[in-house]
Design brief:
Blueprint: E1 12-14, E2 20-27, H1 32-44, H2 49-52, E3 56-62, H3 70-98, E4 106-109, E5 113-116, E6 119-122, E7 128-130, E8 135-138, H4 141-148, H5 155-173, H6 176-185, H7 189-218, H8 225-235, H9 238-244, H10 259-272
Parallel strand pairs: 1-4, 4-8
Antiparallel strand pairs: 2-3, 5-6, 7-8
Length: 286
């Protein structure tokens, strides 16, 4: 992906040079529950907000300020450019396809741990979108985890992660995320997991729309970029992650979709460029 020297976003909140902030939960998911969520998040995907939305936290500063390396700076610049691209693309898609105005999300960069209205953000939880403040939380060290531990290499694999989380913000802007999470809260565990899968697959499809428009609008896509994103989607499928963790895949526990489903829905968005193609909630076969 051609990104160096291009415009970055003004919606970056960089917390990497401040002390880590750790929250102690006093409501909702707390104590052992938070630990369980962290473990599940590490192995099963990114967006932990359905489990953390109802938690309230008290915060305290901990540890010394994080040191920002040259690699950190470059990763921050890369994320800023990708975020700027999503802002321009979704503004155009909203106007053209649904006649609405798109309000961009903010993206929080942090190292180690920081606090959000959805609970603590950490390198273990992975990136996630918090509808409580309409921000994406991202420790760029996760990109190293993707490459070295998950087999998802390449700059466009990293761009896919950002685009997926912004996809949750797009869902939030369209009123989809709040409705889906409301139904999840009133559903059985099995039904709640199925709804979660549909939420995540739609975000993958929306990331595909972004990838298509990035090529059409900016011409920034290089040979092999789309393949990097498809591979990343496959590597973070629930079945693949459970196998990698030494477990037998348990479909009833899936919350993000299989590798085949995640890559398929990304490609649907990539090929169509249409929001209507990303209606996972009406799909009889995911």
């Amino acid at each position: 992906m051609e990104w160096r020297g291009r415009r970055g976003s003004g919606n970056i909140e960089d917390r990497r040079g401040v002390r880590g902030v750790r929250g102690a939960s006093v409501g909702g998911v707390g104590g052992i529950g938070v630990i369980a969520v962290v473990v599940i998040g590490y192995f099963l995907g990114f967006d932990l907000t359905p489990l953390l939305n109802d938690s309230q936290t008290q915060t305290q500063q901990t540890g010394a300020p994080a040191q920002i390396t040259d690699a950190d700076k470059q990763a921050g610049q890369f994320v800023s450019v990708v975020l700027a691209d999503t802002e321009e693309i979704w503004a155009g898609v909203f106007k053209q396809q649904i006649g609405e105005t798109y309000t961009p999300a903010k993206l929080v960069l942090f190292k180690g741990v920081t606090q959000s209205p959805c609970g603590d953000a950490s390198g273990a939880t992975g990136p996630f979108y918090c509808p409580g403040d309409k921000k994406v939380y991202l420790d760029t060290d996760f990109f190293t985890t993707m490459s070295r531990q998950l087999g998802a290499e390449g700059d466009f694999a990293m761009a896919y992660v950002v685009a997926h989380e912004i996809g949750h913000h797009v869902q939030d802007e369209m009123g989809i995320l709040s409705q889906a999470n409301d139904v999840r809260g009133r559903s059985s565990e099995a039904d709640a997991n199925e709804i979660s899968v549909r939420i995540e697959l739609q975000a993958d499809c929306l990331a595909g729309i972004w990838a298509r428009e990035a090529q059409n609008t900016f011409g920034s896509i290089e040979k092999g970029d789309f393949e990097e994103a498809v591979n990343a989607a496959k590597q973070i499928g629930d079945d693949t992650l459970q196998r990698s963790a030494g477990r037998v895949p348990m479909p009833e526990s899936f919350t993000h979709g299989t590798s085949a489903q995640r890559s398929t829905w990304f490609v649907k968005g990539l090929n169509s460029g249409q929001l209507s193609a990303c209606d996972t909630f009406s799909a009889s076969n995911l």
